[in-house]
Amino acid sequence: MSASYDVEGKDGVFVIAEQTGKVIGVFYAESDLGWWRGHVRGRVRRLFIPAAEPLDVGRRFLSP
Questions:
Q1: What is the domain extent for residue 24?
Q2: Is the dihedral of CA 10, 4, 40, 63 positive or negative?
Q3: Which residue positions in the chain have pLDDT lower than 50?
């Protein structure tokens, strides 16, 4: 994750925020293993990222 973003989570929901606190997006793990759903910068995405840490998932959601 870039030095200008943080990923924080509780109860399986993770928030991507700028250092200023502005929320950029949110994501969560679906019940199907490896699948994640998120809403980042106005775009809804579903990604398959098996065996990944939330920080890695946040990076993928921020990539184009």
A1: 5-62
A2: negative
A3: none
| pTM reported for the whole predicted model | 0.85
> Quick one: tokens of 15?
């928030």
| Distance between CA atoms of residues 54 and 60, nearest Å | 10
Query: Which amino acid belongs to residue 2?
Result: S
Q: Say how many domains are in the chain.
A: 1
Q: For residue 13, which phi and psi values (nearest 5 degrees)?
A: -110, 130
